[in-house]
Amino acid sequence: MIKIAVMGYGTIGSGVVQVIETNQDSICKKIGEGIEVKYVLDLRDFGDDPIQSKVVHDYQTIAADPEVAIVVESMGGVEPAYTFVKAMLLAGKSVTTSNKALVAARGAELVAVAKEKNVNFMFEASVGGGIPIIRALNSCLTADRIEEISGIVNGTTNYIMTKMAEEGCDFDEVLKEAQDKGYAEKDPTADIEGHDAGRKIAILTSLIAGQQVDFEDVHTEGISKITATDILYAKKMGRVIKLLATSREVGDTYTVMVAPFLLPKEHPLYTVNGVFNAVFVRGNMLGDAMFYGSGAGSLPTASAVVADVVELAKHIGRHIELEWRPEKLPIADYRQQSTRFFVRTGADKAAVENVFGSVEYIDVPEAAGEIGFLTTEMKEAEYEEKAGKLGSVIQMIRFH
Question: Which of 127, 145, 304, 315 could form a disulfide with 284 if both were Cys (CB 3.0 to 4.6 A apart)?
Fold first, then answer.
């Protein structure tokens, strides 16, 4: 009987317990023996809930118990999660987590501690929720050199952009609806300003590069400035606006960024709507592949966590090699990346053409008193210089 502990009995932690209880038979068959939740660590008590008999309030109780082989961390945040997880690894226990803040900030270090103690640190659910992207990168795609990863990796922002596109609503109106439905947090800043997606693409880039990419270095723009007028322009161009986290190979490093992009109908991420997530991968041998599914929610995320538990149970006493060196990888300057830009401005056509030269105008009758246009392909740095000269830029969204 393999005994595990769950640290944090919130949305994800309770989901993990539910998945194990509901799918007990099939999980045990896959592992080859029984599995039991021995402890649940939480600050709270849970009254008449059957889980109460397993609740402990001191993480050292778990660390000191030799019967516990696997620990699930689902508390969120960097501290005290980092202290607790490191203590579990040092005590010879394997750990899986859904905590992207922890993995982005301390992942390389925790992988190294796990290797030193001949245990494992897994974090499948930290990026794609229920989408098995990390296992795919570490197992199925190891023969490839990954040239690009582009993903819709935040369900909140994708829900908002989908509703705005379908109903023509303003951002603030849809955000309030998302909060009322529980799709957005009371403080949605991490989602709508792209910080959550920034952490996730930093983790993915760290894994494909084999060394640390700091999420603070990732150029990040959110969706809070996207308007119903932008949606009208997108429809006129036959495109949709999506918040993408992108990482592209450039020489011996990567250009990494999070920003809204205008996607054409033929792009595989065009039809990813609502709270669903998807990650597009381009390998130098594989070509293109896409991983799609529920990116958030208690049970989809818990399913990915329990899949890690099964994998950890199969490898007790054996470390699974994972290359993620703590040395920082200097990522490429995003300003040297080239693309086309959609621009809305209050300037006249003469001023636009004087600065940007030949452009393609997009006519939206509802957008009175402004001009919308597409630039030719140019580097970000060149666009920034020209936009500064033009002035009165209302909006800029990149083409993908």
Answer: 145
Q: Cα–Cα distances in Å, from 284 out to 260, 281, 291, 293? A: 26, 10, 17, 24
User: Which residue has tokens 């709508």?
Assistant: 192
Report the C-alpha gap between 231 and 246 in whole angstroms.
22
3-state per-residue secondary structure call for 136-154: HHHHHCCCCCEEEEEEECC
Please state, in angstroms and rounded to a whole number, the distance separating the CA atoms of residues 168 and 166: 6
Sorting pLDDT into bands at 50, 70 and 90, what band is 296?
low
In angstroms, the CA 251 to CA 332 distance is 9
Contact (Cβ atoms closer than 8 angstroms) between residue 293 and residue 155: no
Cβ proximity of 3 and 36 under 8 Å: yes
> What is the distance between the alpha carbons of residues 189 and 173, in angstroms, rounded to a whole number?
16
CA distance 114 to 39: 21
Question: Hey, what are 67's tokens?
Answer: 């019967």
Please give the average per-residue pLDDT across 187-204, as a whole number: 95
Looking only at the bridges linking them, the beta strands covering 276-283 and 287-294 are antiparallel
pLDDT digits (tens, 9 = 90+) for 34-69: 999 999 999 999 999 999 999 999 999 999 999 999
Q: Which member of 54, 86, 100, 200 is catalytic? A: 200
User: 367 phi and psi, to 5 degrees?
Assistant: -90, 70
**Is 100 considered catalytic here?**
no
**For 84-128, what is each residue's pLDDT tens digit?**
999 999 999 999 999 999 999 999 999 999 999 999 999 999 998
Question: For residue 68, what are the β-bridge partners?
Answer: 3
Residues 72 and 5: beta-carbon distance below 8 Å:
yes
